[in-house]
Amino acid sequence: MTDTTYGFDTLQIHAGARPDPATGARNTPIYQSTAYVFRDADHAAKLFNLEEVGYIYSRLTNPTVAVLQERIATLEGGVGAVCCSSGHAAQIMALFPIMQPGRNVVVSTRLYGGTVTQFSQTIKRFGWSAKFVDFDDPKAVAAAIDDDTRAVFCEAVANPGGHITDLDAISAVSDAAGIPLIVDNTTATPYLCRPIEHGATLVVHSTTKYLTGNGSVTGGCVVDSGKFDWKANDKFPSLSQPEPAYHGTVFADTFGPMAFTFHGIAIGLRDLGMTMNPQAAHYTLMGTETLSLRMDRHVANAEKIAQWLEADDRVDYVTYAGLKSSPYNHLVAKICPKGASALFTFAVKGGYEACVKLVDSLEIFSHVANLGDTRSLIIHSASTTHRQLTAEQQEAAGAGPNVVRVSIGLEDVNDLIADLDQALSKASA
Length: 429
Ligand SMILES: *Cc1c(COP(=O)(O)O)cnc(C)c1O
Hints:
lyase, single chain, O-acetylhomoserine aminocarboxypropyltransferase activity, Aspartate Aminotransferase, domain 1, five-stranded mixed β-sheet, alpha/beta, 12 strands, Aspartate Aminotransferase, domain 2, 429 residues, 2 domains, globular, binds pyridoxal-5'-phosphate
């Protein structure tokens, strides 16, 4: 079922799924199979030639994973999606078809700490590089783009601070330069924000977080809007010219708006092997079915807790964009009208020492490196997720030593506030 005229609540349960043709099983089975029998030699040849779509080998495609791909693509308003083993894998899978040695990507300073490290260090080994820019300033983004820039990358609602990116302003800049905008929509989810409607070319996810929603499996996804014209200039030869890694196929000619998705499967997954397994797809499919219900509660709890923290004397400031005091508050209505998600930071009076005491004193909140769980989570970013960053990078990312990051869960909000209250008392004693 892919009829996008249905409402979000219907699509999050049904998109991509149909009763199992062999057994009638109503829930999508976990197709725990590595390979698929070809009807005959001609069928096999057609599949390998990409003349017919079907299943060959689960490094490339798997029926359970395919349902999740169609579901996330539908929820994001894209034409196709490729799932992979983690959010970090999704970022490499998004860049792989459009980058080459010597090319660069212009990225926001406000990103998940692991992404800052991936972009500032690891991608250099592929001959790629990243330029970090303050995305609150679209002119600075435009100024950073040069002849070798092949993409612009940001998070819709940024981890850890919950800052909102003005995607319309940024996509105007990437459009003018003739390059794609890649938006990490992990923190907002397609229920709160639909980056493609604001001009994104590709949307990446760590499905590990809210899409699965209960901290059980890692996974990632790249969604293609199908709207980018890869042939408009000569910057994207893997898509617009004969691709030597697939016996000279011109993906943009053969697959039209599905070029990026087919490239991701036929070459990205085939050669990089960052495949999502069907068990993970199953857990994430179950998560997507309740996404809107969970996000509404995550947002309601986060709003109450952010307001309570902001009014508390033991707290210096709270970064939640849903607060009237936030410099990003005016972007909520435009970018994420159903709420600013449930991830934000707050600064504790007493600095590093008080943060460590706070984290150790909480009873309901868990001290973990994750977000988007049913459970409320807290982490001291400067000593963990953002530890590899310089002091300057930590400040730019909103993860200074006096700051803790919370991911507000689905528990009773009064219990969460009471827990923060007792732990703040111990931290400031
Ligand atoms: C967690 C996270 C990632 C990385 O995802 P993994 O599934 O852990 O590889 C990327 N971006 C954001 C915003 C994240 O929160």
